[in-house]
Each structure stands twice: as structure tokens, then as C-alpha cells.
Amino acid sequence: MTVEYSVRVGIDADFVMTINGASVAGTNVSDVFNPATRAVIAQVPVASRSDLDQAVDAARAAFTNWSSVPLSERQAIVAAIGDRLEAHAEDFIALLTTEQGKPRAMAEWEVYGSVAWFREIAKQSLPEEVVEDTPERRVVSRHTPLGVVGAIVPWNFPILLAVWKIAPALVAGNTIIVKPSPFTPLCDLKLVELVQDLLPPGVLSALSGDDELGKWMTAHDSIAKIAFTGSTDTGKHVMRSAAGTLKRITLELGGNDPAIVLGDVDPKKIAPQLFWAAFQNNAQFCNAAKRVYIHDSVYDVVRDELVAYARTVVVGNGANPETQLGPIQNEPQYHKVAEYFDDCAESGYTFALGGSIDRAAEGWFVPVTIVDNPPEDSRLVAEEPFGPILPLLRWTDEDDVVARANDTLWGLGATVWGADLEAVERIGKRLEAGTVWLNEVHQYSPHQVFGGHKQSGIGAENSLHGLAEYTNHQTITLNKVTGAVS
Ligand code: NAD
Which mutation among 32, 152, 251 tests ligand 1's pocket best, with the greatest number of atoms within 8 A of CB? Predict the structure, then answer.
């Protein structure tokens, strides 16, 4: 079927699964939409149970050799995958915008970020640690790969969050099967297809499918680990299902990140930073600032500056060069976000900006919306809307704002903004979150550990801690004196 993005060198219009190094069309297909137009742009296979079994069998067979390929060769291949992605970056940027909705600047950030991730993770290793070395005994602690990894990916950063799993899994010596979100499968299917010649068959496979495929993967006897990014609710299903085979799991889940703004900020300067902290990627961002606590002394002026800045931001089809924020990525999410608009309106909260959805719009668009000081227990403050509707809240007392910021089941990220760096750091260290950014936000690195506290996740991605999650610990002891040797 024809797709509406421009077809360039290296990316053709067929989207296939990759199983054991071969392209597989599958028997059933599902539609993929452009969220800016609601038009069907492509069809992808829906993997069957037998497709999964074949991919797992191939991945198991490939594991024996792949895990014994010298580390330096595996690292070189992972870096080469990054080079291949870079060579096709323009294609992926266009495709990502078309299937996900994000504008070009964000698509560039994601694609070039993914290139950097492949290259940097390719430099990582987990050397053996000599725990004891005496004339009598040698004790070594080492890492061994797990086997077949299943990667389950969401729709907000479809490429990057797949790469966060593919790169460390391969460097550590595992084989891996990627399942993209049914809403954004195109870039991941293409990426996996495009790098097959760099890898032995079966080492890296991709299966598109629905949520059933995710369930089969988490219960599969021969998958050793699930690396999952998605919502907290689904994460709990994954954990329950993985318990049946005691799979290793990494869960990167939802968040309700607080931003705390001190009274000494420059309102004009802080407004754009707060705006992008909250609305980047159209607020479909696990680490979006989802509750902004502004000190009472500057609340009104910061709110007004934020609203003024927000009015300058262009929302539209990501394919248009002037667009800064795109649509909601998919229809179920659009309806979910709309519920928060309705709830705020029905509850009589004050909209400082926006609030009314044009339901006849061509795509799944909702306006940038700012809600003025809703109750702390409102759905908007207590839940994760995952769309561009943001509550602003007043605070006066430091202990109180820290308690309110921490009063959530989530603990993914948090930010603190202010001129008094001592106060900023003091407050930051009191926050229960995996990443606390002080006077900045959304700074990630392949060498910086990332993971959630509380119900935002289990385990971590990135850094050597993330790499270690793709390995078993193994201790080898050698008694040089006693034993079978006469
Ligand atoms: P989701 O949980 O609905 O889906 C995520 C993936 O899980 C998809 O591939 C989906 O097909 C699959 N899935 C669905 N049901 C499954 C099941 N029962 N078993 C196994 N797999 C199943 O999440 P989403 O809507 O795609 O993504 C948005 C959510 O992801 C938000 O909550 C957001 O905060 C979170 N997120 C977290 C991070 C992080 O790093 N912590 C990053 C991005 C997004």
C-alpha cells in the first residue's frame, strides 16, 4: 500500500517483520494512521503466536554464537548500526513525524539521539572484577548474558526507547526481539530490517502486533528478560505475567513529575523553560512536568508569562516546518486526554489558557491548556493525563510543597527552578524521583542512569547499571591448592 510520506533512498513503502534475518509479511494486517490527518498511511503485519515462536527459536539458536562473539566485535556492530541509522536519518525523521505526529525538531532529536546512543553504549563494557587473588585462590565476579530479550516499546518515543533496549542487549551478548507499539510500528520495523546485514540471523528481530503479542512475550518460556517501557498499569500486567517464568524485568513506567518554582525566579526567563518542561512532545512525555508548583509571591506573574509564551507556540501537522507541537498520537489517547478537559470544565476549574477542544479538527488535536490552581486532589493533578493540559499550583511553605510533590505513587522525575542554588539543591534532594533536574530538564545521557522510584518502575536503563540489567552475575572461584588435581 502507498504511504504518504516521501519515499527516499533506503526506505521503501513495505513494512515487514524480521524473523531469523528474513522479511515476513504475516497473514493479518493492521492499519497505521497519521495522527495529524487521521489518514491510514500504511499497514503492518499482526504477528501470530507462531511468528513469535519462530522468532524466539531463531533468537535462542543465534544466542550461542552471538554471546561468544568477542565484546569488541559486538561493540563495533552496535556502533555500525548507529552509523546505518545516521545514513538514513532524513528518512527516519520524515517517517517518525508521519507516524508519531511530532514536529521535525523533536524527530531530529529522537533520531540523532538514537544514533548517539548506539555509539556511546557501544563503548560500554562490564569488565571482570577480581575479588580475591592469592597463591591459594582466585575469585572472579563476571557478567554473563541472559539469553533472549523481549523489548516492548511505547508510542511516544518509538525509536529512542527501542534503541535504549537494543543497544545494551546486543553489547551484553543477548539476542533481542522488538515489539513496537501498535500505534507506531513503522520506524522500528524499518530500523530492524535495515541493519540485518550487519548481524547474524536471529540476533535482532522485530514483530509488529497488538497487545496480545506483548502478553505472549511476557509469558514465553524461552524469553529470559522483558525490557518494558509503558504505562504503570501495563507494567503491573507485565510483572505478573513474567512471574510465571521468573523472567528478569526492567520496567520504565509512568510519572507525575512535579516542577517546583521558587520565589526568586525571573518570570520572563523561566516561562519558556517551564513551557517546554511541560509541553515538549505535546506533553506525551513520561518526564513531562505534569504539576507546576509556583511560589505564591510570583504565581500570578509566572502564570501570565507562561500563558503569553504558550500563545506564541504553533500547534499543527508536524510536517509543516513552522509547527512546534503536533497532535495527540492516537485516538484512544485523544479520548483519554479529552476526559481531563471535560472533568476540569465540569468541576468549574479556571482555564488560564485553552480548555476547549475542536472535535471537528482534521487530526487528533487538542489545544495547549493551562489550568489555574485546581485542587490538589483533582484528577488533573493526581493522575497522568499524558497530553497538553497542565495544572499550576500555589505554594508558600517549603516543607508543604515538598510533601505535596512527593504525595504520589509515582517517582519518575522532578525539577526545581530558582536563583538560590543552595535552596534549589536542598529541595531537589528531598524529592522522591529517579531523576531530579535542577534549573534544567530532559537532559539524558547514555552514561547517566535512568529509572523510576516507587510505581514509576523497576530497575534502570542507560549507564553501566542499565547494561548490567542485561546480564547475570556469575562468581567463579578457583581453589589452586585442593581439589581434583593430584
Ligand atoms: P502502554 O502501557 O499502553 O503500552 C506500552 C507497550 O506495551 C505497547 O507496546 C503495548 O502494545 C504493550 N502492551 C499493552 N498491553 C500489554 C500487556 N498486557 N502485556 C505486554 N505488553 C503490553 O503505554 P503507552 O500508552 O504506549 O505509553 C505511554 C505510557 O508510557 C505513559 O504512562 C508514559 O509515562 C510511559 N512512558 C514511560 C517512560 C519511562 O521511561 N519511564 C518513557 C515513555 C513512556
Answer: 152
Angle CA(225)–CA(230)–CA(30) in degrees, nearest 5? 95
3 state SS of 330: coil
Q: Is the CB of 230 under 6 A from ligand 1?
A: yes
Q: Ligand 1 mean position to 180 CA, how many Å?
A: 10
Q: Which residue has the cell 530497575?
A: 459
Domain range 257-438, CATH architecture = 3-Layer(aba) Sandwich (3.40)
Tens-digit pLDDT string for the chain (486 aa): 334 443 343 345 699 999 999 999 989 999 999 999 999 999 999 999 999 999 999 999 999 999 999 999 999 999 999 999 999 999 999 999 999 999 999 999 999 999 999 999 999 999 999 999 999 999 999 999 999 999 999 999 999 999 999 999 999 999 999 999 999 999 999 999 999 999 999 999 999 999 899 999 999 999 999 999 999 999 999 999 999 999 999 999 999 999 999 999 999 999 999 999 999 999 999 999 999 999 999 999 999 999 999 999 999 999 999 999 999 999 999 999 999 999 999 999 999 999 999 999 999 999 999 999 999 999 999 999 999 999 999 999 999 999 999 999 999 999 999 999 999 999 999 999 999 999 999 999 999 999 999 999 999 999 999 999 999 999 999 999 986 665
- Overall fold of domain 17-253+456-475: Aldehyde Dehydrogenase; Chain A, domain 1 (3.40.605)
b/e map 251-287, b = 16+ CB within 10 Å:
bbbbbbbbbbbbbebebeebbebbbbbbbbbbbbbbb
Is residue 457 lining ligand 1, measured as CB closer than 6 Å?
A: yes
Atom of ligand 1 nearest to the CA of 232: 32
Q: How far is the CA of 380 from the centre of ligand 1 (A)?
A: 20
What residue segments make up the domains of the chain, in order of their start? 17-253+456-475, 257-438
Determine if the pTM surpasses 0.85: yes
Structure-block grid coordinates of residue 153: 516499546
Q: How far, in Å, CA of 289 to CA of 420, rounded?
A: 21
